[in-house]
Amino acid sequence: MLYVVITFLWVSLWFYLLFGGADFGAGILELFTRAHNKDRTRRTMYRAIGPIWEANHMWLIIAIVILFVGFPKIYATMSTAMHIPLIIMLLGIIARGTAFAFRHYDAVVDDMQQVYNRIFTWSSLITPLFLGIIAGSTVTGKITQQPKDFLEDYVFSWLNWFCVAVGCFTVAIAAFLAAVFLIGEAQGEKDKRRFIAKAKTANIAAFIAGALVFFASLYQHIPLLDWIFANPVGIISITAASLSLILLWYLLSKGKVKILPVLAGFQVTMILLSVTYIHFPKIVLLKDGGYLSLLEHEATGKTIDALGAALLIGSLFILPALFYLLYSFRKSANRTKA
After folding, report:
1. What is the reported pLDDT for 148?
2. pLDDT tens digits, residue range 267-281?
3. Nearest-CA neighbor of 220 among 126, 272, 277, 287?
4. What does the angle CA 306 – CA 145 – CA 59 come to, to the nearest 5 degrees?
5. Model confidence over 64-94: pLDDT tens digits?
6. What is the 3-class SS of 197-264, one letter each residue?
7. For range 199-228, the mean pLDDT
């Protein structure tokens, strides 16, 4: 049952990166859209994420609950060392959701709409930035369970060049996913070309940010290159991501959009697999050379069995409802476009 729980943890994080990332990316695209095109971008975004944006956070909630219940030591260590970025990320989620609701459903259109817009777009950027910072901090080896002072416990574990570079990479990936997903929602050839251009720009930004991650890892003596290229899975994953990138750019240049979301999702999945496979079952690398493992620092057997059963039973109810929501929304969106 332990592997069932771990699978749900990995899948929930994977789904949150893909769907939640594209959700945040829509706000990032709006932030970097010229003023005369912002209204068109918002309308396209509303069709794409309007009715389902809140459902994306379900995956994050599932991951947090799994860590809290199934791996309390890991949860306690991470929530302590990364307390500040976690609070900023959660505040960003709250601010973004509130601003989205008010600017979309507020009956009074006045100057407050500009306030809502700014809160929505900037929180859309800040949230994935700190999500990436948190992810990066788990492998830097700077987290300690015996801190000497406040800074070592709450700041130095995440405030460094490598974590910031991973955060920037996460922002670029989110913008890229959103641009690719929104191409198919565009109404008119002009909007379609505009989102294709944004997808290319975001992909270039992701490539540059990825290079910064590698440079930062060298600067901080983090063996990222060895982690990725010292095992067959890492090599195959990066090769597959590179080949899919070439195909994606070819399809973008031809304006063929149907398979683009699948390719973008596949590319991100391969990148995620390449950097996580080598560490399994280790989820946090500690400063003293130790680690926290999903197979060594789990809760009691009865707790894991109950959690695994709850996840399996819950998925029988939640997943069909979620897929029906996506289906009904897609059907409604197609009628609107027609």
Report:
1. 82
2. 889 988 888 888 888
3. 287
4. 40
5. 999 999 999 999 999 989 999 999 999 999 9
6. HHHHHHHHHHHHHHHHHHHHHHHCCCCHHHHHHCCHHHHHHHHHHHHHHHHHHHHHHHCCCCCHHHHH
7. 91
Q: Which residues lie below 8 Å from residue 232, measured CB to CB, with a gap of 6+?
A: none
- Do residues 23 and 173 touch, judged by C-beta distance below 8 A? no
Amino acid sitting at position 254: K
Q: How many CB atoms lie within 10 A of CB 81?
A: 28
CB-based contacts of 6, cutoff 8 Å, min separation 6:
281, 294
What residues form DSSP beta bridges with 292? 284
Q: Taking the CB of residue 247, how many other CB atoms lie within 10 A of it?
A: 15
Find out whether 20 and 57 touch, Cβ atoms under 8 Å: yes
Pair 169, 212: CB distance under 8 Å: yes
* 2 Cβ contact partners less than 8 Å away, ≥ 6 residues apart: 294, 295, 298, 304, 308
As a whole number of angstroms, the distance between CA 38 and CA 33 comes to 6
Q: What is the CA radius of gyration of the chain?
A: 20
Distance between CA atoms of residues 131 and 124, nearest Å: 11
Q: Taking the CB of residue 200, how many other CB atoms lie within 10 A of it?
A: 16
- Encode 202-234: b = buried (16+ Cβ within 10 Å), e = exposed: bbebbeebbebbeebbeebebebeebbeeeeeb
Paired strand residues for 286: 143
20, exposed or middle or buried, with CB in 10 Å at 0-12, 13-18, 19+? Answer: buried
The domain limits of the chain are 2-220+292-337
CA–CA gap between residue 130 and residue 134 (Å, rounded) = 6
HSE-CB for 154 with a 13 A CA cutoff:
7
Q: Mapping DSSP to helix (H, G, I), strand (E, B) and coil, where does residue 284 land? A: strand
